[in-house]
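Recall that a protein's primary structure is simply its ordered list of amino acids. Everything else, from secondary elements to tertiary packing, is in principle encoded there. The following example makes that idea concrete.
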Amino acid sequence: MTLQNLAGLFPRGYTNDWAVGHFNVHNHEFMRAVIDAAEAEQAPAILAIGMLSIKYMGLAPLFAAARNMATSSPVPLAIHLDHARDLATVKQALELGFTSVMFDGSYLSYEENVAQTRKVVTMAHAAGATAEGEIGILPPSMEQMDATTFTRPEQAAEFADTTGVDFLAVSLGSVHGMQTKGATLDLDLLSRLNESLRCPMVLHGASGVIDTDIRAAIGCGIRKVNVNTELKIAFKNRLRAAMATDEPIDLLTDLREGMDAVREACRNRIRTFGSNGEA
């Protein structure tokens, strides 16, 4: 199937009761696992490529591998650039054929975030891609959580209208890199954001958010949910268990075990997001 931008994953628009899963992929095993999960669940999905993976393997090789596998799949898939912080990387990704890009200007002043994100939106739309921006700050740990960094509804609405982003990442109480589920979301804030925004919202850091809050968030306008750490933990734990046995060493068999673990985690998340059967 032809690659889709994020809008293409929602052919009936965003007035639905499900969210698409954004799954960070770092190598062949992760890509194959996400695609297999999407096919098994008949769900649209996003193969997300982030900055650390690009540093490890390179932008062009990662995209080429993802594109080759995704275009052979019968379910709608997007290839998304995650958390880019410079326009050069965005430009390169769009030239390669990424169908969606996310610019993270949360570390910038509000004015600079607006200016840079507007440029990203213009570039993305010219290439037929969708663009995601971010307003508010997701801290690196629960200990650094501070409600003053949460997304403000009035500022979010102004940001979305001024930049023209297709999706907006918001800060509600989740953090990046959580290895256990325990974070809860400010659902009252999300409800107010949903009333003020005219674009769908994105939940980052979903690996650490309890499932009940994820489902509630989808009911309040979240249409894209990002999962990364959970998949890496699933892969590592299964690989560690496989290598700890007395069986003869066969690295390819062990890697397949890790891939199976990621596939299972993705299928569970797809069902939590309600996107199963929506392909």
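The chain has ten helices and eight strands. The radius of gyration is 18 Å.
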